[in-house]
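Schema walk-through. Below, the input block comes first and the output block second. Nothing else is stored per chain. Lengths vary across the set, and this one has 190 residues.
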Amino acid sequence: MKGSFKTAKQHEFEVEALPHADLLYNYALRMTNNAADADDLVQETFLKAFRFWDKYEKGTNIRAWLFRIMKNSYINRYRRESKEPDTVDYEEVQNFYNTIRDEASESSDLQESAFGQLLDDDIATAIAKLPEDFRTVVILCDIEGLTYEEIAEFLAVPLGTVRSRLHRGRSLLREKLLVYAKDRGYTVKD
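--- output ---
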């Protein structure tokens, strides 16, 4: 019986935080582009959340709080692993990833099997090519289903900034997907 004893803190944490594990994992997978790194990031997020559970204000937005912890953990990990964070070229990293992905004829990649059926490669590529600020808001809103308020809290920006980035991100995505739609026979107004 001794091993099955749970504290009130453990019980509260399990009830409030753990149901969001899939959502956090999906976003971590999109940030890291690697299943193992995503697992590590989610685990680190939950460890920190549990450690600082007393700082969480009950009744507030738990998802935004968890996303904030994840975002900060991701940034801190990136800074630790980078010798010169100001010299990293995001486009170079993205191009390398796309090149490697295109060269693989058969993939056992968890991300590809999980999301490959949900989004056509052209759509996923168009989303990936959006500038990071716009891409993040589009993914969180249109794919993950977060509210504008949750996104604003997660990104620590005003609500108007979220709306603006979402509008601009969707417009850029619309432009990128115009050719895709025409190629598949959809009637598109230019």
